[in-house]
Amino acid sequence: MKNEQIGECKVNMRIEELDFNKVVTEDLIELNLQGTTKEEVLNELTNLLFKNGCISNKEGFIRDVMFRENEGVTGLEKGVAIPHGKSKHVLKTSIAIGRTNKFVEWESLDGNPINIIILFAVKDTDKTTIHIKLLQKVAVLLADEETISKFQTLQTKKEFLKILTEKD
After folding, report:
1. β-pair type (94-104, 114-123)
2. Which of the 8 DSSP states describes residue 110?
3. Tell me: the pLDDT tens digits for 36-89?
4. Count of beta carbons in the 10 Å neighbourhood of residue 166
5. Which residues, 6 or more positions from 89, have their beta carbon under 8 angstroms from its beta carbon?
6. How many other β-carbons are positioned within 10 Å of the β-carbon of residue 31?
7. How many other C-beta atoms are found inside a 10 Å radius of the C-beta of residue 118?
8. Which of 90, 115, 128, 148 could link 100 by a cystine bridge, Cβ 3.0 to 4.6 Å?
């Protein structure tokens, strides 16, 4: 992976204004991930974060995400995983979201593979309060079976953002 940054991260967030519009944009969503392994999918989402200026170093960020992956299960249930990297390579705390065409083997609470990945990129300085609040918001969303069903079938990034923000 080359480290040629392209864009400026459009994510802008203060803890008192924590909402999904501040941590994810359409540019950070890919509904057609091509990866067939956990590593390939994480690389694709990391590329989105890098291309949009949210992280400074792809290899360093991936290393931090994989370190966290080795600490415990990030696959939830019903095909969803929430990997996260708390890293000095994160320029702005943000979330990249992807959906794969085929299910990917991933350690999960229900033992099933996943196809929806919500990758948290957390700045070292945000690793306590903001990180926990983001996880709480995502957990509330993912507790709703209707929301997960919509994530599996929606066709546009705009629809995805709408679901995230309407429950916010």
Report:
1. antiparallel
2. T
3. 999 999 999 999 999 999 999 999 999 999 998 999 899 998 999 999 888 999
4. 9
5. 55, 56, 57, 60, 61, 64
6. 17
7. 24
8. 115
> Within 10 Å of residue 128's Cβ, how many Cβ atoms?
10
Q: How many CB atoms lie within 10 A of CB 6?
A: 9
Tell me the torsion sign for CA atoms 109, 45, 101, 24.
positive
Q: Tell me if the pTM is above 0.70.
A: yes
Match 């992280």 to its residue by tokens.
Answer: 55
Give tens-digit pLDDT for 126-166: 656 665 677 777 777 777 888 888 888 989 999 988 887 77
Cα 161 to Cα 23: distance, rounded to the nearest angstrom: 11
> Which class would CATH give 22-166?
alpha beta
* C-alpha count within 13 angstroms, C-beta hemisphere, residue 131: 17
pLDDT (0 to 100) of residue 125: 74
Domain ranges of the chain: 22-166
Chain-centroid distance, C-alpha 13: 16
Measured distance CA(152)–CA(99) in Å, rounded: 8
